[in-house]
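A quick aside before the break. I want you to see a complete sequence-to-structure record at least once, exactly as it would be stored in a machine-readable document. Don't worry about memorizing anything.
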Amino acid sequence: MKVLLLLAAAGLCWAQYNPNTKSGTTSIVHLFEWRWADIALECERYLAPNGFGGVQISPPNENIIITNPWRPWWERYQPISYKLCTRSGNENEFKDMVTRCNNVGVHIYVDAVVNHMCGSGGGSGNGATCGSYFNAGNRDFPSVPYSSLDFNDGKCKTGSGEIENYNDVNQVRDCRLVSLLDLALEKDYVRSKVADYMNKLIDIGVAGFRIDASKHMWPGDMKAFLKKLKNLNTRWFSSGTQPFIYQEVIDLGGEAIKASDYLGNGRVTEFKYGAKLGTVIRKWNGEKMAYLKNWGEGWGFMASNRALVFVDNHDNQRGHGAGGASILTFWDARLYKMAVGFMLSHPYGFTRVMSSYSWTRNFQNGKDVNDWIGPPSHGDGSTKAVSINADSTCGNGWVCEHRWRQIRNMVIFRNVVDGQPFSNWWDNGSNQVAFGRVLPQESGSDLNLNLKLPPEHPATAATPGLWQRFQGPRALAAGTVAAAGSPRPFKSLLKPWGSWPPPLWLAVYLLLQYAVRAYLHL
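That is the input. The structure line, written in tokens, reads:
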């Protein structure tokens, strides 16, 4: 009996770290600022057929409407209530999206903004996406309801009420983040209101939550409201399945608050990942691809089974948050494809792909003064539909990195090699590296594979005479190629035998080769 109880407890402890994606899928995509109707279509026509496991959506709760500047992206992070109506759609459209995506095996992960409400200078009235009344100055949000008793104004010890020192743990967690009204999550009433909101989403069918601004909440307060959450809807999930939790905690080192403070509640966003990878791919500060041999925990990252990883996110692709200029984005398409390709080929962490929209940048003194611009929209502020071009790219100002062929192929690649060892590292001591991911073959026969790239192949020119040989029972390997001088950052060479999904994967120790210097002629 003790053994059974221990096993049950271990299962409960692990549950919030499990992404709850459909078996055989290993990545999610952040469809930033997409409308619910477009996400439903994308699940059915593209994400499910191409092996994406889920979608992180923008916050679905009612937010303040900001008109100066005009409808910025960050208005979505200023709640007025927990009603489900935003420029992405209303509650019925939200429910339809969740149902349709779940029905094709693509699950929904909600960006939950529960640390705060709108800014202290938000005024009063019904200028919100559902038309709810609020009075920010009086701390009055009757549609929740929250009153002045439910905020941390009296608990914050700074004269301004704002965070003034990020090395003061109490300030970071009890004071206002950029003037946003900080909720008193030590109160059970507030915890219950947060849990009620999240439980409504669970009932609708979501699979988990990104907890925004987790760094600005006490881990114990978070644990208290997370304990109030229901198990997932059994229409789509096994009985007893708990929601996947991943917490936004920016920790690049040098501050009092650590990502490790939050590991007891769920996975944590590993912001060092994109910042360090961008530095390596750019070859800044003497970094080389060869140094990635021990990528992951060897670089001081958290344990792989506790990390959610990404090359960029909606904040730092605009210079907000963590990583600064080292962050690679769609604006640097060739380098970006290399970084995302490496992320999806390497086994560390649970991976999230970014899908963005473009905007007109305007750099003044090194800063993009247009970094506030919201999604492609009509004159009335309503979001434009995501149109799909004949070549499968997106129109109407949507970038859709997840539809880029190289990234799509690597999402599939990661699914195929999931759980298989990272092996046979090779590097030239500089910016060319190769490694394999070995796959079990279904038959019992040995596979002897000699692979030599043709002499005219640019990768062969970079590494003359390169051979790889694998022997052994049920040995297959998988990989991708990126070669010096190639017009593409990398090329997936994972080839199916027969129809998709194949009964067997054939050929396969290939090369993951990054010849950065020659490729970029640097």
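Two observations worth writing down. The chain has one domain: 25-120+147-436. The chain has eleven helices and 23 strands. We'll return to this after the break.
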